[in-house]
Design goal:
100 residues; mainly beta; five-stranded antiparallel beta sheet; four-stranded antiparallel beta sheet; 9 strands; 54% strand
């Protein structure tokens, strides 16, 4: 298992760190599919400035609900309280952007 950390950066980027590092454009929000080698998957959503003036992150079911540990934590590179999601995933898991 490895840990993916997903968080919003600036007001238009989503960062994924862990087994690999990836950056996604998120100007009008973002939805990403986290997919394990066995096909288990979930969706992560990110939107800047929805209800608050900060990033709002969420998890959605895909019909193959994995039993991966999921945590909401402080963003790793900031002193102020900003949210990030940590997900413990199997080795070889990928993240791909999907249409909203």
């Amino acid at each position: 298992m490895s840990t993916l950390t997903i968080y919003g950066a600036s007001d238009d980027l989503v960062e994924v760190e862990g087994e690999f590092d990836e950056e996604f454009g998120a100007y009008n929000g973002w939805r990403g599919r986290v997919v394990a080698p066995n096909g288990d998957a979930l969706l992560v959503t990110a939107e800047y400035g929805g209800v608050s003036d900060y990033w709002e992150l969420g998890i959605q079911n895909t019909g193959t609900w994995p039993s991966w540990p999921i945590r909401f934590v402080d963003r790793p590179d900031r002193d102020e309280v900003l949210v990030a999601i940590e997900i413990d995933v199997p080795a070889g898991t990928i993240v791909e952007a999907v249409e909203r």
